[in-house]
Amino acid sequence: MPPKSQFIREDGLYHSFCGLVSVGWLYQKIKDSFFLILGTHTCAHLLQNTLGVMIFARPRFAVSLLEEADLSSAQPDISGQIAEIKREHNPSVIFLLSSCTPEVMKVEFEGLAHTLSTPELPVLFVPASGLDFTFAQSEDSVLQALLPFCPVAPPEDKRVVFLGSVNDAVAEDFAMEAARLGIPVAGFLPASHFSELPPIGPGTIIAPLQPFLPKVASQLRNDRNCTILSSLFPFGPDGCRAFWEDLAAEFGIKVDLAEREAAAWERITSHTELLRGKKVFFASDTLMELPLARFLRACGAEIVECSTPAINRRFHSRELERLEGVPLVEQPNFDRQLRDIATHQPDLIISNMITTNPLVGKGLVAKWGTEFAFMPIHGWAGVNILATTFTKALRRHAILDPLGSDPVWTMGLMPSAPGDVIPLQEL
Ligand code: SF4
Questions:
Q1: Could you tell me where the beta strands, DSSP code E, fall in 301-381?
Q2: Does 128 lie in the same domain as 24?
């Protein structure tokens, strides 16, 4: 366990992007689901623009708009919308997401979901409002809501369940790698369909693929008495080696992936040569900052600061060990960060949605951290994409764009699922 003084908490904005955005990848991942947000025109506008929804696309998510009249009623009536969703989309599960306004109005979501739920069509409450949740954290809420529907596995059923939403190709890659190492797989949480949720019990090893799921991991440990793998997250050659060696060890399988790791580093030499000695400042808010900073440090970069909305000592313990000596900050104060950026003059800033363009405007090389959440950077197959995502900004700044304007995501161009890479639009 790292020493308590290893990171500090400041008083900055918790995050810059609303938790509702995770709907964009979760509705694609859970193919028989529907996501209903009880919200306002602001929420509808956010989803419409970030997810680039076409009016004829019939996406499996919607916003039930609160109107002025709803402000005076104790509980909004959305039974009509539920019936319509059932009729039009025939989902196996409906997720009912909270948003800022009904939370301020004290809508009792748990009770509302309960009254709308039937054995044939569960309606599950998912806390996701932008008041409390970053866009990645609401996946944690969705998985917590799904957990009661995972069958209980008997103690003798010792298999791995991979935790976290990854696209189908990445999931297949992990299943194949596990088979190669002789690790039995029970499934993925979330699964591609509601009816395919994996059995979880005292013999289950939960292998987290995403660093933003500490709450569901804790709930799994408490409710199902299963083991949560303590390892690095499977990003980069160093992360993948530790992840698979530690996971195999849970099954009594001894593997040495030193050669595999060395070969993976070898394949990205052109990137590590560029990253070595570069000063990198993490000021983003995706909750992926710790493993990304650890990977860059292993590439030879100097991490000037690694800020992130929240750090969980237990869930992130192995990443924290590798970041010993790096200044780590929860909820960073942006004014202080700007002063430190001016002092240290980092070569690359991994920034959030609010700050990327102002930083670029100041001539700094800034990359929007959210991009990493949508790239297939997991596992051995993702190593090159991970390294390229960092070096692309540096190369463009050095060679192609003397003004330092790195391509950034623009609203309406958000990929539709984790790992779906779409062309970037340059400013
Ligand atoms: S939930 Fe809150 S932060 Fe998110 S879009 Fe709606 S109003 Fe904005």
A1: 302-308, 328-330, 348-351, 366-368
A2: yes
